[in-house]
Amino acid sequence: MTSHNIPDLDMMVLKQVTNDLKDDPNNDERLILNVGGIKYETFRSTLTSYPDTLLGTMFQQRNNALLHPSYNEKGVCEYFFDRNGRAFHYILEYYRTGKFFIENIHLLPQLRCHCQCPNAVRYQEILAELDYFQIPYTIPPKPKEQYPPSSTLDSFILMLKSAMLTARDNFDIYVEIVFPQRNKSKFSVNPESACIVNIVKPYAENGYAILDTFGDEIGTYLTKVIPNFTWSLQKNTIYHPHRYFVDMSINSECLEKQIVLNESKLLGPDNNDEIC
């Protein structure tokens, strides 16, 4: 092919591309969707990206003859749907992003009851629009709400575990905690390290009650999850009635010099790395 034919070829390609764009059902024609009196503006291509939905099928190029739009003063096509205009916000966001932004969808009925906003949308209203516009969806399972006392118990156990491991990381092998029943001034933590005291102190008032009911189970659990762990729980000693004494400790071998050095960058395989 000689060089003088190249410009002619470029013009042929450009003409073909232009014709293809004109025939492309996913062109960027702007549309106005008037849904129950609320107007939304989008592109035809946004809707036809999901051809298995109602709007995705409706606005395919092959169905143009079936459409009967009105035109606003700017010449933009407008289509009216006698549907829920407030709920349609979620429908259009699906077309734009492929996602539903309804993280707390199970709370929508309750939010409507406590909200004075007239634009609040109920869960059932959104589902009705999803069905009408033929948008596939799955309802996420409603998360099980943990019984508040159970949540408090779990937090208490996590606190004890954190206190013990924090002590170990600071080269202590034991933690002693006193949980008084009434006189909160008798609450104490040993060692009196600020980082450990701050972990335990939030439970100074309810620690006694928790241990009084679940002390044995807590000790059994912690012994399983903390290596080389020892648990001791005493109540109502002769000299200190109405208190629980928690003694937690770990085997001192975990802090032996050689074990610590082997895991340190001082003598480990990466001892050439800078300690930071």
TrEMBL record:
One of its GO terms (biological process) is protein homooligomerization. SUPFAM superfamilies: POZ domain. Residues 29-150 form the BTB domain. SMART domains: BTB. InterPro entries: BTB/POZ_dom (IPR000210), SKP1/BTB/POZ_sf (IPR011333), T1-type_BTB (IPR003131). It comes from the Eukaryota. This is 13177_t:CDS:1. It comes from Dentiscutata erythropus. The lineage of its organism: Eukaryota, Fungi, Fungi incertae sedis, Mucoromycota, Glomeromycotina.
